[in-house]
Design goal:
Rossmann fold; nine-stranded mixed beta sheet; alpha/beta
Amino acid sequence: MSLFTPAVKERLKARVAIDGPTGSGKTYTALMWARILAGENGTVGVVDTENRSAAYYSPSPGEKIERLQYWDAPYEFGHLPWDPPYDPNKLARTIEAAGNELGEDGVLVIDSLSHFWTGEGGTLDVVDNAAGRSGNSFSGWKVGTPVQRNLVDTIVHAKCHVIVTMRSKMEWVVEQVEKNGKSINVPRKIGLAPEQRQGIEYEFTVVCDMDLEHRLAVTKSRCDLIADVVSQPGRAHEPAQAFAKWLYSGVERANEEEVASLLTVIDAVEEDTARKALKIEFAKEWGKPTELLSDQVESAKKWLLDRMMKS
C-alpha cells in the first residue's frame, strides 16, 4: 500500500474568527455569516456571553418577518446565554454537544471567545489560581495550557461549522487629515490584537477584522477567493457567500453511519483470525474506514462482500 494517496478537495467545516472593538458589529456579522453558511433552512446556535446581546437581532414575538434576502436580519437561532464563570472545559463540552444537536451542516456561534480567556473563570484565571497554589507562574501555565489547548482542539474538530467573535484591545491614535486646505490632527479609536492567546488566529480557516466604521477585512484565509478582501459597510455578506461556495465545493468524507455500515460487515465474520485478516486486507486496499470518501463507501462494501464470499 502506498504511503500517499491522491489529494482531493474535500468539503470542509468553517472555522471563522471575527475580531474587533466594541461597537464594530461583530455579533451582527457573525449571525449573518452563520445564516449564509447554514443556508436558508439550516440550524444556527449561539453561545452568548455578551449579556444576551445576540437576542437583539432575533425576531420580536409575533413579528411578521419580511426579508429581501434570506441572510437579512432578524435572525432565527437557538440561544444559550452564558454567565460567569467562563470555564473553558465546560465550553469544550458544550461545543461537542452542539455539534451533535446542530448537525454537520449547522453553525455554532461563540460570542465571544474572549470571555473564556480573560473573563471570570477563564484560562487566565485558571493560570493565576494554579500559580497561587504553587507560588510560580510556570506551574500556573502548566495547568492552564492544556485547558486552553483542549478548548482550541475542540473548536478545530467540531462536527459543525464554528464562528467565534473576539474583542480587540483599544487604543487611540492621532492622524493627520486635510480639512479646508489645512492639516489637522484627529484622534481615532482603533482595535489591536484580539483578547485571546497570542497566535490563536492560526487555528482558523478565516480571520476577519472589523473596525468602528463596520468595515470587514479578511486578514487570513485558506480560501483564496476571499484572501485580503475588504468589505465596506453593508457588504459583509459577499465574502461569506464566496466562502460558503468554496466550503461546499469538495467531496465529502464518509460519515459516522457509512463508516459503521462498513464495520458491521467486517464484524459479521465470526472467526477471529479470519476477521483480523480481512481488516488487514481492507486497510491495505482502502486505508482506514474513517478516511474513506463518501463516494467510495459502496465500492468498499462490495469489495468486502466479494472477499467474504471467496473465503
